Protein 1
Amino acid sequence: MIATGSSSAPPRLEALENIDCLTNRDIFSLERLPATFIVLGGGPIAVEMAQAFNRLGSRVLLVQRSGQILSREDADMADTVMAAMADEGVKFFLNTTVTDARQEGDEKIITVVSGDGRTMELRGDAVLLAQGRTGNLTGLGLESLGMERTGGFLAVDNRMRTSLHHIYAPGDINGRFQFTHAAGYEGGIVVANAIFHLPRKADYTWMPWCTYTDPELASIGMNEKSAAKAGIEVRVWREDFQANDRAVTEARTRAVSSWFWTAEKGSSGCR
C-alpha cells in the first residue's frame, strides 16, 4: 500500500522558484505579519489563508488564473464567499496569469497579466503558493514499475488498486478527494479488499467537504456543476437566509442553502 499523501504543487512558472514562497506547511512558521500578502491560487487553502491574514491585518491580494475561486463549487456559492471576503478588504485578480516574479531584498514582485491584457506588478512582503497539490511519489522507486498516473497522482480503480492490482493507493496520493476523512474511508476500502478479500468499492455519492471561510461553504453529494458534468438533470430548491430568525439576530443573512433532487434517486445533494 502506498499512502504517502500530497504536497503543494511546484510553481507553474520557473521564475517563482527564484523568490521565497510560502506553502500551507510553512506559512504557520511566520514570525511577523506581512503588511501585504500575495496569494497565488483560488482553492480552499488559498481562500482560507487569504481571509485569515486579512482579518489579522494584512493587505491581501489573491491571484486566480480562472474566473472563479473554489472551482469545485457552483459559481453562485463561490461568488457568495468571494463577495464576503471582498467586503472585508481582500482584493481579487481573477482571469489573471502570473508571467514573472522577482525579489528585491525582502520585497516580492509578481508580474501578472489580466484577462483584458493589462500588465501589472503586485508587490508584497510574503507570497503564498497555493496552486494545487501533487502526490508524494519521489524517492519511492516507482519509475521502473510502470504504474499508471493521473497528472501528479497514482491512478486507482474504485477498489483503490493501482494499475498493478496488488498495490493499493488510498488517500491524497490518488488525487480524488484530498481530505482526512476521505483518506480514512479509502483506507477501509483497502482493508476490505487486501486483507479480507471482499470486493468492496468506493462510493463517493455522499462525500462531504467544507471550506472554512466565513461564511463557510459546506457541501455533500452532488451539486449543479457535478450533475452537469455527469449529464444528470437536477431540480434545485434554493433557500436564502434573509427571513431566517436566527440568521437575522446574528446578522448572518448572507447565507444560502441549496438542495438537489434527481428523478432517479430523489435527494442527491446539499450545499
Protein 2
Amino acid sequence: MLAEGPNEKDISWNNIPEQSVILNAGDCVMFRSDIWHRGSANTSTESRYLVQVHYSNRWIAQRMPPYLNQFKFNKKLLSKATPRQRRLLGDHEIAGNYT
C-alpha cells in the first residue's frame, strides 16, 4: 500500500485531482523532482523504457547517495571523458568542507 489513510484510492491533494501526462513513443517530459509523481501500470504488450536524469547543485551530489563512498565511476569511461563531461556526469573534485 503506497497511500495510507481512510481511502487509499484517494490520490488528490487539497482537493486537487491528479493530472495525467499522456505521451507518445519517443516523447520527453521534464518536471521538477520535488513534485509528487508516479508511473502507471504498463497494460500494453510492449516494453516501456525510461531514462531518468537528475541534476543538482554540485555540493548536493557530494553529500547525498549514491555518491558517498557507494558509487564508483567506470575508470575506462572517465579516462575518455573531457573535464566538462566528467562534471556533467557528477565527477567533481571535493570543494569545501562537506563532510
Protein 3
Amino acid sequence: MGRPRKALLDRARIGATALELVDEKGDFTVPEVARRLGVQTASVYHHVDGRAGVVELLRERIVELLDASLLDARPWDAALEGWARSYRAAFAAHPRAISLLMTSPVRAPRVIEQYEWVAGLLLDAGFAADEVMPIITGLDNIVLGSALDMSAPEVMWVAEEGVEAPRLTAAQTATG
C-alpha cells in the first residue's frame, strides 16, 4: 500500500490535537494524540522529538494567538503592557495548558523570538542586562497567574461553618 498523496499528519495538526486534549483533560500522551489523529504513535514521533516536542508545539499554538505587533508600539511600557494583555488573553483561553508549559523549558523558535523582542525592548528602554531576565520572569508569573485566575471560581475563599474568619469575610463582602 502506497503513501497517500496528501499528508495525513503535520506538526500543526499534532499541536492542535494535543492542545484539544489538554483543554479537555489537562494533559495528553503521544499515543492519545495519535489515536485522535487516526495514525500510529510512531507516525507522530516522525514529526516531533518525543513528548517534549509536542509540548513545544502546544506552546507555539498558544503563542500564535498573541499579537506580537504590539511590541512595536512606543513608548516601551505601552508596548510591553499591550503584549502582556495579549499574552494573558491567549493563555486564558487555554488555562489547563499553563502548568504543563510552565514546567518545561521554552525552546520553540517562535516563542523565543517573542522573548527576544521583549528583552530588546527592555534593554532599549535602559534596563541593565542583569535586570532583564528577572523582569521577564516576573512578567511571566504575573501574566500566567492572572490567566489562571480568570478561570478560577468567583469565590476562592470559603469559610466553612464553624470557621471564624470575620476580617476575611468583611473584606470579601466589601469587594462584592
